[in-house]
Design goal:
By secondary structure, the protein is mostly helical. 75% of the residues lie in helices and 0% in strands. The protein is built from 15 helices and no strands. α4 runs antiparallel to α6.
């Protein structure tokens, strides 16, 4: 059964992979338009806030822009062409778009920006802002961002896709390939959204719970990589016979793919952990400041009450 898809026909004469060749521009209308649209909408939101005299963190803007560029990097370059015929290159695409891009995009707080930039529609009417708020508070969002849903989905995206014929079927058409990549990005966003806690959402677990959620998915990820590295034969038809022009052994390429999946599971863990510790530290600082302010206001009253208590003890003792 040949699942070579459209990629094989085009890429039969691809030269051996080098990073330079992989990073050359390669037109992909869907992702190019999507990335430009994302940047334009975010830029519109930031400009709108600035004109109103409101501030917006430059760090968030930089994070979002790098997040969008990371999607463009793996989808609008020759990495996308090589990813159709080399498992290792495909795995780089998958890891970046599902575990690095979502974290950077979420650190950009696009939902918060949208809620602040979109104008209210007025009484009794529904505009984009009201629709977004309804969506955020909907039962659907509550379900799809719950750890009981996100963690199994995150794990199933690896095992159910790669270890069944589904992957070969999707790789057989351009629409299938785009759909799969969009799915990877969506799963990453849904998985990391409640954990990052930057944008408003239905689930806001405490910091310890967020860390547990983060680490619940990662061992499965590492094990998936090890399973690919340990396999004694190519496991996916799409990549079983790489074009001769690439000069690549299919099994060795699969081992590289497994190594990439295994190594990559550590990167988001470290990034998210740093972000969480930073947020935790700042929330503790804010809580301490609030307590100090309360003590400044009420300190004298507490002292007077204590002195009165001592006086009453003395009176009783006489």
């Amino acid at each position: 059964m040949d699942h070579s898809g459209h990629g094989m026909d085009m890429d039969m004469d691809l030269p051996p992979f080098t990073l330079g060749r992989g990073l050359e521009f390669s037109f992909d209308a869907f992702f190019l338009i999507g990335c430009l649209l994302g940047l334009a909408l975010y830029g519109w939101g930031v400009v709108r806030l600035r004109r109103r005299g409101d501030t917006w963190s430059a760090g968030r803007t930089v994070s979002f822009v790098i997040g969008v560029l990371s999607v463009a990097l793996v989808m609008c370059t020759k990495l996308n062409d090589y990813g159709m015929v080399l498992f290792s290159v495909h795995m780089v695409q998958h890891m970046v778009i599902s575990m690095l891009s979502p974290i950077l995009l979420l650190l950009g707080a696009p939902v918060t920006l949208a809620l602040r930039a979109l104008p209210p529609a007025g009484r009794g009417r529904k505009g984009p802002r009201e629709v977004l708020l309804m969506f955020l508070h909907s039962r659907y969002v509550r379900v799809v961002t719950h750890p009981a849903f996100t963690i199994p989905l995150f794990i199933a995206s690896l095992y159910a896709l790669y270890f069944t014929p589904l992957f070969d079927t999707l790789m057989g058409s351009k629409a299938g390939h785009i759909g799969m990549m969009v799915h990877f990005l969506a799963v990453g966003l849904v998985f990391f959204w409640p954990i990052m806690g930057v944008d408003p959402g239905p689930h806001r677990p405490g910091y310890v719970m967020r860390m547990l959620e983060l680490f619940a998915g990662m061992p499965f990820h590492a094990f998936f990589g090890i399973a690919l590295m340990m396999a004694s034969e190519p496991m996916i038809s799409t990549y079983a016979h790489p074009p001769a022009s690439l000069g690549v052994d299919a099994l060795q390429d699969q081992q590289w793919a497994g190594g990439i999946a295994w190594a990559f599971s550590e990167i988001p863990s470290v990034l998210v952990l740093i972000a969480l510790v930073y947020q935790w530290y700042h929330s503790e600082q804010r809580a301490a400041k609030r307590a100090d302010r309360a003590a400044d206001r009420d300190g004298d009253r507490e002292l007077e009450a204590y002195n009165a208590y001592l006086a009453s003890l003395r009176a009783r003792g006489q």
